[in-house]
Specification:
Radius of gyration: 25 Å
Strand content: 15-25%
Number of helices: 14
Shape: globular
Number of strands: 20
Largest sheet: 7 strands, mixed
Strand order of the largest sheet: 12-13-14-11-10-16-17
């Protein structure tokens, strides 16, 4: 079956892509298994060199790929450009990780009977890894997963995002040409075929970034084989704003994170929990800062906000806004969507029991603001979600902010900065329904490998047995 891919804002036809039929899963996995042994057995430099070569080629096409990505995803051009550069950097840095990865020696000499043994502990590839890619950061996340998998000695099957597969496919074409057949494959598939791929015999692990629903579906599909799952799922991150916070800074940081990918980022600030003494002032400042931010052509100079990934996504966000209003919130800024176009929205006076302040994660440019009276109340509300990916605390009192950060049960906490803080070297991942495992340079590499020890018994010299004091 062939699917036509269209620009989300205009409906312009961008290209066609053919879906993998259900009966094609076995062939894809078979080709990966056939390539796995030789690739795992290759020297680290032999696995690194194709990644670097692909990075060199992609570096010559950054502007072309960024433009294609902006058209296909609705992501504003500056962000698309940054993402492509990030993907290239991940290729290079994972290649270097693969070159320099080393094991260690277990301290067997610390136990009686082990003093003559040498036990090496190494990290080995899992085998065939299926990487399931979301629509919001597809190019970068593909390389976060696939480059780490390949550098570690795995072979990879990349399942492309359904809404915007073309740019990611183009990037993978460059990498695939550098590799032996079967080492890297890409597929475009519907939900049924994707589930069959993740659960197929011969697949050793699945690394998925996506919605909670997608993660649960993969967990169900693979439960019978206890397949290792590496999951980065949703996030309903809270930013706690104390009374002593710099509100102009809070606004800048919240907008910087919330407008990324048009509000469709897992780690964005999705709940603003402000002290009652500043909540109204902060709400007014957010409205003022967003009033002139209009959704526009993502390729236009200076664009800050493009369309959501499709009209259905915009309709779902509007339903969530209406539920919050029904719960007692006020729409201080914003309007119903026009197709995929969704204007920035501020929800004021959101009551603490409203669903959007708990597990109803809004994937769009919406900022709900709620008020609290003391730090304990703020912490309880921030923690009252199963989607605990990232959180933030804004305060001039750093010792207090740090103490509060220690009580936030999230995968990451930022003090005086956007929730969407994700340099590639931090272990990025969540708690509870936000996922399992961590992504980032070195962290993904570890998740897609396992330890193996090899013991050499009796090879060390026996050594000198010390004579106890007082013995003759």
């Amino acid at each position: 079956m062939t699917t036509t891919i269209r620009a989300p804002g205009t409906g312009q036809v961008l290209g066609d892509i053919t879906a993998l039929p259900l009966e094609g899963v076995a062939g894809i996995v078979g080709a990966a298994r056939a390539a796995a042994g030789d690739w795992a057995g290759a020297a680290p430099h032999q696995r690194a060199e194709p990644l670097v070569a692909a990075a060199d080629e992609l570096a010559l096409r950054v502007d072309e790929l960024a433009g294609q990505h902006a058209r296909e995803s609705g992501k504003v051009l500056a962000q698309a450009h940054h993402e492509v550069l990030g993907a290239i950097a991940l290729l290079r840095r994972n290649a270097e990780l693969g070159r320099t990865a080393a094991g260690e020696l277990a301290a067997t000499g610390g136990l009686p009977g082990g003093e003559r043994d040498i036990t090496m502990v190494e990290r080995v590839p899992l085998g065939v890894v299926v990487a399931v890619i979301p629509f919001n950061f597809p190019v970068e996340l593909t390389m976060e997963k696939a480059a780490a998998a390949l550098a570690a000695g795995n072979v990879a099957i990349v399942k492309l995002p359904p809404q915007n597969p073309l740019t990611t496919a183009a990037v993978l074409d460059v990498l695939e040409r550098q590799l032996p057949a079967g080492v890297l494959q890409r597929v475009y598939a519907d939900t049924e075929t994707s589930a069959a791929l993740c659960a197929a015999p011969g697949v050793d692990a699945v690394s998925l970034t996506g919605s909670v629903g997608a993660g649960v579906a993969v967990a169900r599909a693979t439960a019978g084989v206890l397949r290792p799952l590496h999951l980065e799922l949703g996030g309903n991150g809270a930013a706690i704003v104390r009374a002593d916070a710099d509100l102009d800074h809070v606004v800048d940081e919240c907008l910087r994170g919330r407008l990324l990918m048009n509000g469709q980022a897992c780690a964005a600030t999705k709940r603003v929990v402000a002290h009652r003494s500043v909540a109204a002032d902060l709400t007014e400042r957010l409205v003022a800062a967003l009033t002139d931010v209009d959704p526009t052509d993502p390729l236009s100079p200076g664009a800050r906000l493009g369309p959501l990934i499709d009209a259905g996504a915009a309709a779902r966000v509007e339903e969530q806004v209406q539920r919050a209003i029904a719960d007692g919130a006020t729409r201080a800024l914003g309007a119903p969507p026009d197709g995929a176009w969704f204007a920035p929205t501020v929800l004021a006076d959101v009551p603490a029991e409203a669903a959007v302040l708990h597990d109803d994660e809004i994937f769009g440019p919406v900022l709900p603001v709620t008020a609290y009276d003391d730090d304990d109340e703020a912490l309880a509300l921030a923690n009252a979600t199963r989607l605990r990916l990232t959180a933030a605390v804004f305060s001039a009192d750093l010792p207090t902010a740090l103490a509060m950060a220690g009580r936030l049960d999230f995968g990451g906490v930022v003090v005086n900065g956007t929730n969407n803080y994700r340099p590639p070297i931090v272990p990025f991942g969540g708690v509870d329904l936000a996922g399992a495992g961590r992504e980032g340079l070195g962290w993904t590499f570890q998740e897609l490998t396992r330890t193996r020890f090899i013991a050499l018994r009796g090879v060390r010299p026996a050594g000198i047995v010390p004579i106890p004091k007082g013995a003759s």
